[in-house]
Structure formats: structure tokens, C-alpha cells
């Protein structure tokens, strides 16, 4: 009994570590960015991993070898996908035009097995409720829809109105869960003394009290303190 438990723990640990290493080298695509080929590879790797962790019909060595081989092939394919247009076309379907010059391309919809109802739904998710407002709509190889509205229906931007705007950059994280991110402080040419002063101005005596602090591109600092363990927070919205 004890030997079986130890064996199961070892198999699961090996499977977990191998999958972690393979996933690390496969890249950072989110689920919404995955193509059918990516999805098929992940399902296969998951199946082999489960077999390595729990499958009694194969030895750990066999399952691990299969997992490493599949992972290696996936990594090589991913590398070739970047380097070779031919491999890219082989593994990914090409984008398909669903609406062109304001007209629905029904042949292309049939080609990718899309219905008008599905196209309408995807347009609504892009805040487009009228086909007449669309100049081009393209179904990307990950299944997402890209929409170019007609120029008369496109939202106005400050440049259209010749209005100058101030630069808006990314917020720089300074404190996360009570830990000061020293490198980020240095990158904006600030130090701990400046940070302590800013916290003191907001009535905060210790960095440990801060859950998050960030500095925006205008030099304004945002601070959110931790909720005390004894305090029960009741939100105005959501479940209470």
C-alpha cells in the first residue's frame, strides 16, 4: 500500500515537472490566441501527462519518453512557425474575409463553417449591431473577428478633432503585497525615502500595510492598503 502511494506521488511529480518545463518553452499564448493545432497539441500532452501520472498500462519511462518527445516536437514546430512561412501556413489556417466592402462573403462563411447568426453574435461583441456599418470583417486564424467600421461610423479620436493630448504611459508597480519593488523604483529614479514620504502623506506608517502601490506616467501615486484580518468588508455591489 505504502509503495503504491509513493509510486503514485513520484509519477505525478515527474509528470508535473515535465509538463511545467515543456509549457515554459512552448511560449505564452493565451487560450483565446490558440489555433486548432495548438489546442490539439495541448490536449495530446494533457492525455500523455495523465497517463504518466496514473496510467497503469504503461511504465513511467515509456510515458515520460512520449511526453518529452511530443513536447520537443511542439517546441520545434513553434520555432519553425516563427521562422518559416510555409510551416505557418501548414499549421495555421489563414484569415478569412467575412465582410468585404460592406457585403457578406457567404462563400467564405461556408468555407469556415460559420453561420450568419454566429457572425452577428461576434459583431455584437464588437459593439456593431448593423451590417451596414461594417467595411471589412475578418475571421482570424484563432477564430476571433477583426472589424473595420466604415469611416462614417468609426468613433472620433482627438486627432480627428485636432486636439492635442498628454502622454499616457503604463503604471509602474512600486509595492505589491507589502514588498517594495526596488528595481522599479530605481527605473523611475526614485528611492525608498521618497516612497516612505509618499506613504506618510497618506497616513501609512509601514510598507507592510500596503497591498498595492503604483506610479502613473504623470507622477501620481496610487496606494491601496491591506484590509485588516478582523475587518469584514461588505461591498456595495456583488455578493454580500
Describe this structure in words.
By secondary structure, the chain is α+β, with helices and mostly antiparallel strands. It folds into 3 domains: 2-90; 96-149, CRO Repressor, CATH 3.30.240; 172-225, bsu07140 like domains (CRO Repressor), CATH 3.30.240.20. It has 8 helices and 8 strands, in the order H-H-H-H-E-E-H-H-E-E-E-E-H-H-E-E. The strands form 2 sheets. It has a 4-stranded antiparallel sheet with strand order 2-1-3-4. Helix 1 packs antiparallel against helix 2 and helix 1 runs parallel beside helix 3 (60-83).
What's this, in brief?
InterPro entries: DUF421, UPF0702_alpha/beta_dom_sf. It is found in: Cell membrane. Helix content is 45%, strand content 15%.
Key traits:
alpha+beta, 4-stranded antiparallel sheet, 240 residues, 3 domains, CRO Repressor, single chain
Percent of residues in β-strands? 15-25%
Mean pLDDT over all positions: 80
- Which outline best applies? flat
Specify the structural class. Answer: alpha+beta
Read across the widest sheet, the strand sequence of neighbours is 2-1-3-4
Main beta-sheet annotation? 4 strands, antiparallel
**Poorly predicted sequence stretches spanning 5 or more consecutive residues:** none
Amino acid at each position: 500500500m505504502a509503495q503504491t502511494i509513493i509510486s503514485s506521488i513520484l509519477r505525478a511529480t515527474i509528470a508535473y515537472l515535465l509538463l511545467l518545463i515543456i509549457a515554459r518553452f512552448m511560449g505564452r499564448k493565451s487560450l483565446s490566441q490558440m489555433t486548432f493545432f495548438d489546442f490539439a497539441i495541448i490536449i495530446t500532452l494533457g492525455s500523455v501527462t495523465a497517463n504518466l501520472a496514473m496510467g497503469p498500462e504503461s511504465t513511467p519511462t515509456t510515458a515520460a519518453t512520449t511526453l518529452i518527445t511530443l513536447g520537443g516536437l511542439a517546441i520545434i514546430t513553434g520555432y519553425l512557425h516563427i521562422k518559416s512561412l510555409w510551416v505557418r501556413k501548414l499549421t495555421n489556417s489563414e484569415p478569412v474575409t467575412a465582410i468585404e466592402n460592406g457585403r457578406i462573403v457567404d462563400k467564405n462563411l461556408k468555407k469556415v463553417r460559420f453561420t450568419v447568426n454566429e457572425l452577428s453574435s461576434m459583431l455584437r461583441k464588437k459593439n456593431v449591431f448593423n451590417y451596414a456599418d461594417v467595411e471589412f470583417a475578418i475571421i482570424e486564424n484563432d477564430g476571433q473577428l477583426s472589424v473595420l467600421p466604415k469611416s462614417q461610423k468609426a468613433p472620433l479620436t482627438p486627432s480627428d478633432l485636432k486636439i492635442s493630448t498628454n502622454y499616457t504611459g503604463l503604471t509602474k508597480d512600486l509595492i505589491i503585497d507589502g514588498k517594495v519593488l526596488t528595481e522599479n523604483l530605481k527605473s523611475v529614479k526614485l528611492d525608498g525615502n521618497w516612497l516612505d514620504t509618499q506613504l506618510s502623506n497618506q497616513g501609512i506608517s509601514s510598507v507592510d500595510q500596503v497591498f498595492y502601490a503604483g506610479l502613473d506616467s504623470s507622477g501620481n501615486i496610487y496606494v491601496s492598503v491591506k484590509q485588516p484580518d478582523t475587518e469584514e468588508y461588505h461591498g456595495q455591489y456583488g455578493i454580500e
